[in-house]
Amino acid sequence: MKSNKNTLKTKFRNRDNLFAGWTSLGHPQVTEMLSFSGVDFIGIDIEHSTISQEQSQAIIAACQSTGVCCLPRIATHNQEAIKRVLDSGADGIIVPTVDTPEQVEKLIEWMKYPPLGKRGYGIARAQGYGHNFEKYTAEWNSSSSLIIQIESISAVENIEQLLQIEEVDGAMIGPYDISGSLGIPGEIEHEQVRNAGQLVVNACKKYGKACGTHDIDPTSERVQSAIDN
Q1: Cellular component per GO (predicted)?
Q2: Which of 97, 120, 126, 131 is the most buried (most CB within 10 A)?
């Protein structure tokens, strides 16, 4: 069963309420079980885990076997890192610590095929080992998702410039890292951190982009508050 990355992108652009699963464990069976829980997509945390390249491809396959889209969070702004997860079949990427429009333009260059970018053409799992090459490459630019993480006060200050870039589908707020950049590490309920997060939320509304964050204690009240804001 193939995932429908175009549907996920449409939901991001419509600012639908979505619930994502998150995995930092290398065994694909864990992700496969998670994909049956009713989540809209699964984030694969390559940044803060020991997930290897081989494991990430197996995890991507496990997601897609149940029809659930997956977005790996890459570990670094690196062409090779992006190329490998995309050729493994990922439906897009989540990118940490994005601060400037110049960084976004470079990500687009590595992620998208010409004429939008300079992604190289390969025949790997994503392209059906050649059997799905033409369809995949023709649809990729318009169907793949790019989510940037806002994790510093510099990124918050640049948020409107970042979201005005058409290929950005949404922003993910990182309150812990924002608190660190403000000199109050770990104080994610601090007024300065909450105000910074609200600036991101407001900008996402203004430019019609998805907005998300982690919640390690997702009570019904916290979930409703996140949706309302």
Answers
A1: cytoplasm
A2: 126
